[in-house]
Specification:
Chain A is an alpha+beta fold. Chain A is built from 10 helices and 17 strands.
Chain lengths: 400, 400
């Protein structure tokens, strides 16, 4: 007695038979099954249906498991009411905007089921990989008494009459955790950015995987390689989970990257790499993911460790379209942090909560942050970050 | 050549030898090792030290691994500067307040290393257990266009000039995800409560593990048992991870619990269970964790499913001191939600965003929320929730 239970994504009448496509959820991973019902049946697309006594059809097409059953072995578990949009059209006519507003309905689409289950699966694989490598998961506060990086693009909060801020980054907390003996830590949570960006890749509330690790006993270069390798291993785990194949990584220094870009574009040393430059580099180097490292001092913040007066141990990782990761070795010496701040014309007083943890004895360390939704965008091949986030937030989108 | 690396938690001089206790972090789990150094050595307590060419001592005491080494096989990786408090005293003199302010230092204490590594380990075990049971991890927004449960104790936010709120609960989002085909979901993240509670068990930013699952095809009673069993299994996983033994669970209905409480206290049917009542019940029933279910309608919110006009399919789970879990079957029928609201004298308009998802076809479901820090408080035997949270937030504590 084969039994299925799930939403009907397609309903077709064919002579005396009804062909239903059901997102079956009786197993652990939802699969689409086709059930050919013998008898009359009202249109039940978008409805949750239970169907039992199904017999497999052995002459199967299209990789969809096919079954037959009698119409009295079928029960509609939900009542038919007006739906925001039809799920049964061959090509669903919903727009992304409609899908987000009616997530409780659009999630019934098979493409969305598969996408959001993949999000959960990849996140779990990444965490497992980190735990196996001795990383300790921590939680850091999102309500802060000061803006994380002294920036202006921060959400303000009324905290019992006091002014508070939403965390733009867990960076200082990660650093405190590793320099005080947790050695290797990670966190998965939101970062909050009050940026008026209306692009396909920016959200005001972005889920990130942040890692930080000590690089004690390593040279600056060795430490950078260790941090980059950890980051690439994670991207590899995610990529293989979705595509089944190992991705190709290439690494190039910023200096060489600029030289390579000048084959096609005019780019000066010290200028930032734009989308078209990244695409050119990835094409030239024939890779899935590109690491650019040793960024110049002028392009990195004060807390990135410098390899000399000109270059830093900072890196970014890109896929075809976007920056997925930013990271590097951190400056851990209090007096050097002060010098870096002065050189960048930042008043050390304005970041004093950051500096305090480094007044005491500290050890070399570094880390990175993965923009998790951006990673999933690439892996699930969607063009808009709002299509891979269940309930996205941008300057206009505050509901549902 | 045995090598260790980590912070010195204790430094003792004994004739011509120095005895160091080091939180070794070269392995995956930190262990305390005792290294007896032959030769001179300045006080290096609280400093990160690397030590190599260590020889094991075979006559060992106190379960602490003991080694010897020469003083020139030792390097202090950090510089000696003023420390907020000494780590080397046999009984550390720091208070909890001092420890929180100087977390980058207090985390070096072995007790804290073990505690915060246990937090990460338990969280990972809980997620693995859920993934194995087919639960899908989701992320729901923490910035909301309306207060989650229509409550007043909610933090307000300036969202590009508009008023927004921090989520008090992911409940509606969890419900939307399961009723639209994800079937079983969980989320781990903060809930934010603007409560002026200054107790040992309340924080304004509390990390929770929220689960939600469909109970389709089950009776109300079966569904409740299924939800409770899922919750108890998770508590069991956490308990065993820390203590190594399976805990004892008992379940009692609210009605019977009140009868039992009246052996010692005066408690009327319909009154809430207080701390002393829970302690009495747990003592009488000889269990580690107590589930109280079938709470009366007057003690549960409008969205909990009712078994009849008087009782609900709602439950709480307690350990010796505290409520760790609250959960139950949810009301999923739009017209019943309206009736429940009217009966509780709540204007349905005030929770209209909640109601919208149930206007369409929905299916039976339920879930629960575990207060993760409270669970860890019990397992790590600490009295104050601030002692198990790296950077806690309460009405007074907004830094670090």
């Amino acid at each position: 007695m084969i039994k299925f239970s799930g939403y009907v994504t397609n309903y077709t009448r064919l002579k005396s038979k009804i062909i239903l496509k059901i997102i079956d959820t009786t197993g652990e991973v939802p699969g689409i099954v086709q059930v050919v019902v013998d008898g009359r049946l009202p249109n039940c697309s978008g409805q949750w249906i239970s169907v039992w006594n199904c017999k497999p059809v052995f002459d199967q097409k299209e990789c969809i498991r096919e079954y037959t059953c009698e119409s009295d072995n079928l029960r509609c578990e939900t009542s038919t009411v007006d739906q925001p949009f039809q799920l049964c059209a061959i090509k669903c006519k919903s727009t992304l905007g409609t899908e987000i507003v009616h997530r409780y309905h659009s999630l019934k689409l098979l493409k969305n089921q598969l996408k959001f289950r993949a999000v959960g699966r990849v996140l779990h694989r990444l965490r497992c990989s980190l735990v196996q490598s001795g990383f300790v998961e921590i939680q850091t506060p999102k309500i802060m008494g000061y803006g994380s990086e002294g920036g202006s693009q921060v959400f303000c909060l009324n905290y019992f009459g006091r002014r508070a801020y939403l965390a733009q980054s867990p960076q200082l907390y990660k650093q405190q955790a590793v320099i005080s003996g947790l050695s290797r830590v990670f966190e998965t949570n939101y970062v909050y950015r009050a940026e008026l960006s209306r692009t396909n890749r920016h959200l005001t509330q972005a889920y990130c995987l942040d890692c930080q690790m000590i690089t004690n006993g390593m040279s600056g270069e060795q430490g950078l390689v260790y941090i980059q390798t950890t980051a690439c291993n994670l991207i590899g785990v995610a990529h293989e989970e979705i595509t089944g194949v190992k991705p190709i990584f290439k690494t190039i220094s910023y200096e060489k990257a600029v030289v390579l870009c000048n084959e096609k574009f005019e780019l000066l040393q010290g200028e930032d790499l734009e989308k078209q430059h990244i695409q050119h580099l990835i094409n030239q180097l024939s890779c899935d993911y590109l690491v650019v490292d040793y960024f110049p001092v002028c392009l990195r913040p004060f807390y990135i460790l410098r390899s000399n007066s000109e270059w830093t141990y900072g890196f970014d990782l890109f896929n075809k379209n976007m920056e997925l990761i930013s990271g590097g070795q951190r400056e851990y010496r209090h007096e050097r942090l002060i010098l870096n701040l002065i050189q960048k014309s930042i008043d050390p007083e304005s970041v004093s909560p950051y500096l305090q943890a480094f007044k005491n004895s500290t050890i070399p360390h570094g880390g990175f942050s993965i923009g998790f939704a951006r990673l999933m965008m690439g892996l699930c091949e969607v063009d808009n970050i709002r299509d891979i986030v269940l309930f996205p937030r941008d300057p206009d989108l505050l509901k549902p």
